[in-house]
Write a structure and sequence with these properties.
Elements lengths: L1 E5 L7 H12 L6 E5 L7 H11 L8 E5 L10 E6 L4 E5 L5 H6 L3 E7 L1 H4 L9 H14 L8 E4 L13 E3 L2 E9 L5 E6 L8 E6 L2 E7 L11 E5 L4 E6 L4 H5 L6 E5 L1
Parallel strand pairs: 1-2, 1-3, 3-5, 12-13
Antiparallel strand pairs: 4-5, 4-6, 6-7, 8-9, 9-10, 9-15, 10-14, 11-12, 11-15, 13-14
Helix pairs in contact: 1-5
Length: 261
Amino acid sequence: MITLTTDFGLGSPYPAQVKAVILRIAAPGVDIVDVTHEVPAQDVVAGSYVMSVACPWFPPGSVHVGVVDPGVGTERRAVLLEAERGDFLVGPDNGLLIPLAEELGGIVRAFRILEDEVSDWEVSATFHGRDVFAPAAARVASGESPERFCEPLDPEELVEPPIAEPEVDDGHVRAQVWFVDDFGNIITNVLYDEVDLPETVTIRVSGESFEARHVHTYGEADSGDLVVLRSSSDHLEIAVVEGSAAELLGVSTADRLEILY
């Protein structure tokens, strides 16, 4: 099985071209699943969240392709990572794949994909998703050894994740916005179990403070209330009931905020 997570958008021909390459190369019967092609354009932070929470639900041994690649055509490496669980991750070396790799038990082996070995046509400087990542994914999903079209890479040389580790002190959390969903809910980089929140907290953004209730479900609060709760991915989430927390707080992906209690 091959999963695809990109920022190509649904109105472009790019997802179809990637799938066409996979179908040309992969062994018969390899399934292709679209996670999403609507990661915000060039937003590596948001893409890393989507992959890290969606892809672990697929069967072990799946191949996960991530293409959010503002550095395409530059010196940034194309990489293939083997995770402890047996999955393979394919994409640019810009931190996009690292949170998913950690969710899958860590990196067992890392490779640099050799552009002149992975496919038999000229590689476009602007579309590595089609010309590098798709053939690499198809070949490894078909059981081919990565050594046939890659060279070994020290995992320590990989670009670090695009989201920082949160700072959790007694009653004070320094966090980042990892993702904003279509409802305007803010998913932070803080795991819910890392904090012991009281009934009310203060959220501080750019010097402005907001009071929020700590709840377990949206239905515990009234329309328009600012709340904090456990997200479905077990992160600390900030939401406005029937509204947009991102709009109220004026934040977007990668912005920093503080939670005090």
